[in-house]
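Hey team,

Filing this mostly as a record. A colleague (T.K.) asked me to run one chain through the structure pipeline before their review meeting, and I want the input and output archived in the tracker in case anyone asks later how it was produced. No errors, nothing strange. Just documentation.

Input sequence:
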Amino acid sequence: MTMMKRLEYQQYGGPQVMRVAPFTLDVPGKGQVAVRVTSAAINPIDWKMRQGDMKIVTGKRFPRAMGMDLAGTVLAVGPGVTRFQVGDEVFGQSRFKECGALGTAVIANENALARKPAGLDFDQAACLGSPGITAWNALFDKAGLTAGQQVFINGCMGAVGEAAVQLARSAGVRVAGTCSEADMERARALGVEQVYDYRRTDLTGIATRYDAVFDTAANLTGAVGFGLLKPGGVLLDLHPTPGKFLRAVFNRQLKLVLCTPRAELLDQLARKAGDGALRLTIGKVAPLDDAIAMITALEQGQRLGGKAVIRMDGP
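Output structure:
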C-alpha cells in the first residue's frame, strides 16, 4: 500500500466539494492492475458523478475519487492478470464506481486497459478511453456498420464525435454530420463528407437517409433523428433514461449506448491510434493542482476546442 494524492470529494455537490488530498493506494485484487497515472482526461461524467447524478450506482461511501480516463505505467498486477506486467505503458479507464484517474495512481480492471502505442504520448493516450470506447460501442457493437454504409453524427467534433468520425472512416463508413461553424474545416479534414452548421441547419431539410444516426450532442428530437434514417437504420442515443429503455424494447431502431469497455475493444483502439487513424484534439493541459479550477470552468460552460488533460507532474 502506497501513499498517493488524488482529486476527491466528501459529499455530493458542486465544484466547492472537490479537493486534492492524499490517499493510500490499495493492492490490486484479482483481475486488477495498479497504474501510476501520467495523464488523465476530463469528461462531463466526472462532474455529473460528483453532483450525485449516478448515486444509485456509486452509493454513499466517502471520500470518493474522480476521473475515468487515464494513461500511465503499470505499478503492480493482481492475481490472474495475464495481459500486463510491471513497467508496461497503458491507457484506458478506471473502474466506474470507484473512479480515481485524476490522481497519481489508480486501480483499474485488466479488461479496461490496453498497451499504449509507442508513438502515442501519454496525453493523447489518456484522451482515448471514454470517447473511443463509446464511439466503438455505438458504431460497431450497436449499429453494426460496415464499409460503404453511411452514418450521420450529430456533434461530430466533440470528443465522442471526433472519435466516431475517425473510427467510421477507418472502417470505410461514409460520414456526414453537424458541428460549429468554427470546426467545419477540421471536420472536412477528418473525412466528413457533408458538414452542417448546427446553428443554421434545419436537419429536416436534409434529403439523404442514413444507416445510422449517432446523436453525440444529445439534442436531437426523436422525430428528427428517426426521420434521417433509411428503412432498418438505427438511432444511437448516448443518454438513456428509464423511459428510453422501455421505448427501445418496442422500437428496434432505437439503440441506447453505454460506455462499456472490454479488452479486445481497447486493443482495437490501440491499433487504430498506433496506425495514426485515431487522434483526439487536446484543448488544454494542466497539473493536478489546477484540476479543480479546470473542471469548474468546464462545468460552467467554458469551451477549450479539445480535450482537457491533467498531467500529474505538471505540463
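Quick notes for T.K.: The chain has a mean pLDDT of 96. Residues 2-128+280-311 form a domain with the Quinone Oxidoreductase; Chain A, domain 1 fold (CATH 3.90.180.10).
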